[in-house]
Amino acid sequence: MDSYLYDLKEYECGLKIDELSNPGYVDVRVEGDAHSSKMALKIVKGNFERMFDKNLTDLVRGIRNNKDNEAKYIAQCMEEIKVELRQENIAAKANAVAKLTYLQMLGYDISWAIFNIIEVMSSNKFTYKRIGYLAASQSFHADSELLMLTTNMIRKDLNSQNQYEAGLALSGLSCFISHDLARDLANDIMTLMGSTKPYLRMKAVLMMYKVFLRYPEALRPAFSKLKEKLEDPDPGVQSAAVNVVCELARKNPKNYLSLAPVFFKLMTTSTNNWMLIKIIKLFGALTPLEPRLGKKLIEPLTNLIHSTSAMSLLYECINTVIAVLISISSGMPGHAASVQLCVQKLRILIEDSDQNLKYLGLLAMSRILKSHPKSVQAHKDLVLACLDDKDESIRLRALGLLYGMVSKKNLMEIVKKLMMHMERAEGTLYRDELLSRMIEICSQNNYQHVVDFEWYVTVLTELTELETSAKHGEVIAAQLLEVGARVCGVRAFAAYECAALVERAASDTPGPATREVLYAAAFVLGEYCEDDEVMYGAISPLLVCAGVGGGPMRARAVCLHAALKLAARLLRIYEKKGYQDRAIELTRMTLMSVRSLLCSEDMEVQERAHNTHALLALLMRRLAPADLSLPADTPVLDEITQDGLLVPHTDSVDQKEDLELYDEGKEDGKIEAFSGGLIADLADMFDGELKPVAPKAQKKVPLPPDLDLDSWIEHGYSSESSSSPDEEEEPAVAVFAPAPPPERPALQLTPEELELLREARRQQQANNPHYLKVDSPRSYQEEEVPVAEMALEVPLQLHTKRSDKYLITKEFSQKGKKDKKSPKKKKNKKEKHSSESESEGESWVGARMHEVNVGGELPEGAAASDDEPPPPTDDPHRALDLDLDLPLREDELLPARIQRYPSLPKEKENKKHKESKKVKSADKTSKKSEKTDRRKKEKKAKHNKDIEIDLMISTGNNVNDPPLGKDNNANSEETNVNNHKNSVDIDENNFKKAKTEKHKKRKKVSKEKDGSTKNKKTSKNGKHETKLGYEEALGISTPSKEII
Amino acid sequence: MNFDDDEKQKLIEEVHAVVTVRDAKHTNFVEFRNFKIVYRRYAGLYFCICVDVNDNNLSYLEAIHNFVEVLNEYFHNTDNFDVKDELCSGRPVTDKDNAILEKVEQDKDIYDIAKHI
Question: What's the subunit arrangement here (chain A) (predicted)?
Fold first, then answer.
C-alpha cells in the first residue's frame, strides 16, 4: 500500500510540473518530424486527458463523499477504470490498477483485469511494477489461468540486477505461486538463496516454503541449502530459515529429528526471542518422538524460564516443558522441580492484571492438570478466584480447571458457587458450559467426590428449576436416572424429590428442561418409590403430567406408565394390610384420571391409557362390581381372559419403552386376598430391579459357536410358562433375571476360556443382539434344567453383558477405567444411608465389580485383535523409504514430504559419498544420532546402500550430468553456473554432513561384517517388510562388497 | 487457503461479529472455527490474525504491535491520511486469512531485522 501511494503522489507532482513548465511543448514538437510529433502529441494528449482522471486519493474521497449511493459511485468508477485500462499509456494503466486494488479490498471482483495487471507488472519502471505486483498479490490465485503468462516475466524480475525488483517479485510471487510456477521457478529462487544480499537471501528462504507447499519435489534438492541457512551470518536470514524449517517440521516432525543438534545450538546461543519461540515450539513437536531429547531440553528451558523477561517466550518454554514432561516417563530426577517451577510461573501469569496472561496461564495450567493434577491443586484458590472474573473466556478456562480441583471437602462449596453463577449467567454458551461442567465434576470418577447423594439429587432438582433448555434437561435426566439406578441408598430420597418435581410440573406448565427431566423423574418414581403416602400423592400429578400438551414430550408415556406401576405397588400394599376400601378408592381415582387420557393426541399415551384403563377396570370389577367409575362397556372385557389382556399390554411396552422391563417374579405362593390374586398379578408385572452395568459391552457379548438358539428357547419356554402365565407370546424379550447369578465362575475364567470367548465373539459379531439377550436370562433361571449347564462360562459372560445394555440405554457415561474406584465410593455411601440397603448394595457393588473386570478385559482383548489388524503405521513409510533414491519413485515420494534427507541430485550424493570417505574426521556429536531409534538407522543404512547402487550404475556417466534433469531444464548457461554453485555448496555441506555419513558408513560396515545381522534386521522389519527387506539386502550386498 | 470473494466477505463479517463485541477488558484471543483469532485494537482499528490453535498467542500479539509500529515508522513522515484512512474507512476489520498471514509472517521477519539493524 505504502509504496504505491507514495509513487502516485510523486507521479502526480511530476505530471503537474510537466504540464505547467512546458506550456509550449506541443507547439515546439509539431514543427519537427511528422512521425515523432504524432507520437509526442499522443503522449501529451494522454497526459491532458489524465489530468481529469481520478487517482486513488480521489477515489477514496469520492467513496466517502458518496456514502449514500456507494454502489452507484463505484460502478461509475469501474467504468472509468475500464476506459483507463484501454489506453496505451502505462501510467494510466497503473493508476487504474491501483484503484482496482483498492476496490478489490472493498470486496469487488476484479478478476477480469488480470491481464491488465500482468501488463503493469511487466512495466520497466519500478514504481509501476510495484503497483502491478501489489494488485497481483491481492487478486491472483494459484489457480488463475493466466498465471502461466507470468513465468518468464517473473523469472526476469527475479534475476534482476536491482535487488528490490527481485525482492518485489519474491513477495508478490509468494501470494499466488502455483504448482507450475513453483516447478519452473524453483531453481531461480534457490539461486537467490545464495545471493550475496541478505535481503534477497531472506526473502528467497521464506519463498522456498511456498515452493515446497506447491511443489514438494523441490524439498529434497533444496534442503541442504536450507539447512545451511540455519547458520547464516545474517540474523534475518537465519530466522527466516528457522521459520521455514519449523513450519515444515511441525507437519512431519520425525523427518527433522536429525536437525535437533543444530537447533539445540541455536537455542542455547540465540537471543532473538522470535526465533527462540519458534525453535522451542519445534522442540515441543520433536520430544514426543525422541524422549531423550526432552531430558536434554529441560535444563536450558528452565534456565530460559528463569532468565527471560519476555512473557511470550516464557509461555512457550512452559508449554514445551509440559510437553516434555508428558513425553518423559516418570522417575526422572528434578522432574518434580520443573513441574513446580512451571506451576509457580503460571501462578504469576494468572495473578497478573493482564487478562491475556491470565488466560494463557489458565490454559497452560489445564495442560499440566492432565499429567500432574496434584501440583495444580495447590493453586485452587487462584482458580476459584478466576471464576469471578469479568471475562467469559477466563471463566470458561477456570471452569475447565475446576475438574481437577474438586475434592470431597470442597465439592459442595464449589457447586454452590457455580449454582450462583448459573442463576445470573447471561450467555447461553457460558450457561451450557457451567451446567455440563458442574455435572462433570460431580460425576467424575464415578462420583468420587460426592459424599452426600441426597445433596446431589437436590442439586439436580434445583438445576431443573432454573429452567434452562431442553438440552440441559436431558443431561439432568440422565444424571437422575444414573444416580437412581446406581445408588440404592438414595433411592427413597430421590423418589421423594421426584414426586415433588412431578407435582410442581403438574401444577404449572413445565418448561423445556422440566419436560425432559420428567422423563427421568417418572421413571425413578415408578421404579424406586416405597413410601405409600408419597406413592399415593404422586399418582394423580403423574397422570396430569401425562396429559400435558404443548409440543412433543417423551416423558408423557413414561408418566402414565409410572402411575400404573405406583398404583399396582400401592394396591399390593393395601391388599397385604387388608385395606379394601382404600384400594377401591385408589383404583377409582386412577381410573377416573386415566379416562381423560383415553383420547390423548399422543399415540403412545393413548395406547397405554387404554391398557391401563382396561387393567384397572378388570380389577375394579372384582373389587367393587357396582362402582360408578366402571365404564359402561365392561361386558366386553368380561370375556377376555386375564392373560389375553396382559399380553398386549406388555407387548406395547416392550416395543416402545426399552427402559421398562418386566420381571415374572417367580412368586410361588400367590396371596389370595380380596382381589383374588389379581392385584398380585398386576404388581408382579413390575417386580424386579434394574441393574447398571459397564458400558459398551453389549456388542462384545460372545456367543458360543455350539449354542443352539432354537433349543434354548424351546426349553425355557416350556419350563417357565407354568410359573409366569402372563406372557407367552414373547417371553424372551421381556424376561429379566432378578436374582444375581453366581458370580464366582465369571472371575475364574481361565485365559483359555477367555480366548475361547473371544473366538466366539469374533464369529458372532454379525449376530442379532436380540438373540443374545434372549438366551442369557434363560440360562440363569433354569439352572436345574440340564441344558442350562451346557455352556456354563458363556452364560456368565452373557449375564454381565446383558445388564450392560441397560446401562447404555440409560446413557451412563462412566468409563471402564474409572469403575475400579467406584466400589469404595458406593460402600461409603451406603454406610451413611441405610444399613438395610447396605448388604444389598454391597452385593450389588461386588457384582458390578465383577462385571467391570470381566467386561472390561474382554473388550480390550477383542478390540486389540479385531479393530487393529496390526498395521504398524511406519510400514508404508518404510516401504517408501526403501525407494528413496530411485529416480523413478521419487515423484511418488516427494509429494508426501516424508523425506528427511536432503535430496541432492544423484551426482552430488555420489560426490558426497566419495568425499565422506576421506572426511572421516572424528565427530563426537555423531554419537547423538546413534541414539535415534533403530529404524532410523536402518533407513540410513538402506539409503546409503542405495546411493552405492547408484554409484555402481552411474560410474560411467558424466558426473556433472544430474540424473534428475531438473536443474538443466532452464537456460543452460544459468544452470551451469547454478550447478557450479551448488556443487561448491555441497562440498561445504559435506563437512557438516560428515558425521551422518560416517555414521551411515559404520552401520554399513557392520552389516557387511556379519551377514546374519542383515537377516536379523530384515526380520525386525516385520512380516510385512520381510520380502522387500530381503530383496534389498540381496541387491545391496553385492555392490557394497565390490566397493570394499 | 484461498477463498472466493463471497467467502471472504462472509469470513470478514463473522470475524467482525466475534471480535467487535468483545470488551476492552477481555482477552485478545478468540476461538474461531478451528483456529483462533488474535486481535488487537488501536483506537477504531482492529488488527486480527487468524492462527493455529497451537500457535503462541503472545508472540502474535507482539507481532501485531510490531507490525503497527512499522506502519507508523513508515508513514509518520508522509501524509498518513491515505493509508490509515484506507484501512479505517473501508472496513473496521482487516481480516487476514491464512494466505495473507503467510505474508504477514514474512513481513514480521523483515521488521524484525529492521529492528536489529
Answer: Adaptor protein complex 3 (AP-3) is a heterotetramer.
